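call fold(seq) -> tokens
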Amino acid sequence: ERGVSWNATLPRSGRYDVYSYLPRMRAGIGISDPFMYDKPYRYLLAHGEGTTEVEIVPYRRDDGWILLGRYSFSMGPARVELSDESTHGPIIADAVKWVPVDDGTR
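ret:
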């Protein structure tokens, strides 16, 4: 099993929207078999409420920032992992971002 992980140091405790950037994955754009990407990507997010697994099927999504969810985090280290365990080929990964949410909760 292989994968990729992203780490951040969050400046404050609170709720964050977590996004993953999904690059273009279409036939003819360096992808010989687009159905190879019809399997779900499994993201693992560790946050203040525990750990959440989020599945995204990349071939069925437009490219760009995909919301993985809204979670509570403590100030300090944060991590998102993407595993290749659910795919039959390589994973294509670019970036993850944590966006603070000002929803009146902490």
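Residues 31 and 91 are 12 Å apart (CA to CA).
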